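Subject: mismatched residue count in predicted assembly?

I count 362 residues in my input, but I want to confirm that the predicted structure covers every chain. Input:
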Amino acid sequence: MSESRTMPSLAALFTGFFAVGLCGFGGVLPWARRMVVEQRHWVSETEFTELLGLCQFLPGGNIINLSIAIGARFAGAPGSVAAFTGLMAAPMAVVIGLGFLYDRYSDLPMVAHGFAGLAAVAAALVLATALKIAAPLRGRPLGIVIAVITFAAIALLRWPLPPVLVVLAGASIVLAWRVPGRFRA
Amino acid sequence: MTAHGTLAVLAAVFAQLSLLAFGGVNAVLPEMQRQVVQVHHWITAAEFASLYALAQAAPGPNMLVATLIGWRVAGLGGALVTTLSLCAPSSLLTFGVVRLWYRFRDAAWRVVVQRGLMPVTAGLMMASAVVLAESTTTGWKTAALTGAATVVFLRTRLNPLIVLAAGAGLGVLGVLG
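Triage response: the counts match. Full output below for your records.
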């Protein structure tokens, strides 16, 4: 069965990604992989990894790019629209519902205190992700310098992102090209 | 500002973020905060942190903080505008590139670009974490909670939702006050 591929219809693209959107607590990617590769056999594991590589390479939300790419792969632009709206419909409704409840009850001290705890952990989630992403920089002095300058420009100096990104990404790509040794571990 | 004017500015701000989000939406959190808090004064830094936390408590992609900001600033229309603006430019780019992808996936320049972007993404993510932690830290207790939860996320494979719920629970019990 693992080698047989199914061509998804527009409805299947919508419902498949709809289910992914609903499941994806604390990271949608594992669920997307499960649905696309293991449950519905739309693409092989290798092709999934390659498409994911593209989606991480391009700007934007990785999982959103993935829904666009998989939709396009099978049904062109309508496929992308079906997969994207499927992915976003339920989470958007849920989050607006939560926002409504928060607005209504955030004056209650208990809710405000609960939120302080929730927000502190949400910050930890980003911090842990940042540390995981930065881990491969060990032993790459130039990479570390670029990361530290980026951090300082955005977090400490609060410079606007567009010029910072253009200058530092440009410099970093040139360095990765000219002195690859110091960029690799 | 008129309602339509606000929607147009929201669209412009989030569409720009879309194309800057190398490494995902979390990489542009500080710029998002700078735009909505400092430049346009739509919400406060504390509200931004709350909306981010709320977005983490919902299922789905982690860009839902944009949905909530749009909703807070301009209601349902705002929610749709920020969500679509944050998704559309990067999605159109992905759509355009996906057909070419198989042609250049092994190209040397692609590997160089990807390797070059990596330290920038790492720096951006660290900036996101610090900017967010600054607004969620109300005292030493919340700082300690952020530190402890970070260790849990790094050292265990516990579902993040359980840790988020535990943090909220500690808050409700008044432990963090």
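Residues 97 and 122 of chain A are 19 Å apart (CA to CA). Marking this ticket as 'not a bug'.
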